[in-house]
Amino acid sequence: MSEIQIRFSGSGGQGLQLAAKILASALALEGRSISMSQSYEPTSRGGLSRSDLVVDSSAGYPLVTEIDYLIILDQLAVENSTGMIKSGAAVIVDNERVDAPPPGEHKTSTLPLVQTAREVGNIRAANVVSLGAIVGISNICAQKSLLQAIHDTVPSRFVDLNLEAFKRGYALVSANREEDPHLTAVS
Fold first, then answer.
1. Percent of the chain with pLDDT over 90
2. Most confident of 53-57, 64-68, 82-86, 166-170
């Protein structure tokens, strides 16, 4: 498989590092090679935050340079990724907190990530709702691996909440998968 570059972006406190860690764990369960990097402003909540994964890198360069899959949970993070998004990439943005998605020749899916997390019972689960959406769009890993990674990574008292958040995020995009041929894995 060729290299895949993924970015989770938004503001501090949205659990972006946790989302990337869960996905990296799921990919590792499947024997994939992963490099993970993160960046965040020194404020604990509200500043720009991102976490990047480079999957199956043959070149060995651990940093994102051309994004295949991008999650944006806050308008604050849009500009940070503009210019790095590949043509044809899949961009997932929250419909409540992102007013102006990044421009470019990519497929943008505007989804109710925060609203779905609110319905699940905790707005902070939007990060895991976005994981469900990215797995639903990309098939980057098996659902089984992601569910196991949630069990292995999340504190036990939050496992059920996060499992439900993942399933709801996956459901947001799975209905559109057959109708939209663009919602497929980058090869």
1. 67
2. 166-170
- Global pTM reads 0.87
What is the residue-averaged pLDDT of the chain? Answer: 87
- At the top level of CATH, the class of 4-174 is alpha beta
**What are the boundaries of each domain within the chain?**
4-174
DSSP the chain: ---EEEEEEEETTS-HHHHHHHHHHHHHHTT--EEEEEEE-SSSSSSEEEEEEEES-SS---S-SSEEEEEE-SGGGHHHHTT-EEEEEEEEEETTT-SSPPPSSSEEEEE-HHHHHHHHT-GGGHHHHHHHHHHHHH--S-HHHHHHHHHHHS-GGGHHHHHHHHHHHHHHHHHHHTT-TTSS---
List, in sequence order, every residue forming a beta bridge with 54; answer none if it has no partner.
5, 35
